[in-house]
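#lab-general

N.A. 3:47 PM
ok so I finally got the sequence cleaned up, no stray characters, all 270 residues accounted for. can someone with queue access submit it? mine expired

B.Y. 3:52 PM
send it over

N.A. 3:53 PM
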Amino acid sequence: MASPLVSTLSLPLIFGSFDPSGASNLPIDAVICARMGMHAGSVVTAIHVQDTSGTESIQRLSPELIDDQARCLLEDMAIGALKIGPQYDPETIAVLAQIAADYATLPLVLQLGVPPSMPDLDDLDPEDTLSALLDLLVPQARLVIVDAALPEQWASQGLLSATGADDPVQALLELGADHVLCSNAALSAGLNGLTLHSQGQASRRWPWSSAPVRASDGDSLLATVLACLLARGLDPSEAVQQAVAAAAPLMAHPFHPGMGQHILQHHTTS
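B.Y. 4:20 PM
back already:
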């Protein structure tokens, strides 16, 4: 019997939480990767108790378990890029930063956001979590994806003051990120979109419509598509241009499976 063919295709490895409703994070990331013709490895960093109406609880996994799972996959599979989605505590972020440092040749797509307000996270200071993201992961990121309003908010909190940069996005670049992709950025009067800021280059802009429902899914979807494209070896600037074309149709088909919010349906129906 002939041996099975071993794929030479580089794969994305995605770090994130598990949403049992399938609306966000790892479950839908796997679907998005499949739509992009990619198989994704995944490392669970937290487990949500939630439905389409909202999240009731977040259970964080131990840093040791996260580290073991990630290194098993990295030593076994042809990983070509890393995506780190929303994270909730400095200990997990420190482990992810060490993994990224040990595999520094792999491009890292980092999705930044604000930690949610949940009873399970009451033992944590949100500013400590944000500081860990900015200090440990942003310097290693090939591409950071963030809502345009957040860097300004963090600058007002003094979280970006160490760089001395006047512009909050420039501060993220000075922390070490190669590229910063801002969503919901004002392109002109009444028109928002994406702006790509890069080290030593003029910014680039693309129109980008927010998701018709669950608008927060837009950045996550875009980050996952970009991880797939970087795993294929594309330059970030080229990857963003292709991601805009590839991701927009994926947001056009929401459906309503339960009592709460709509979910982005990542396939078309006949």
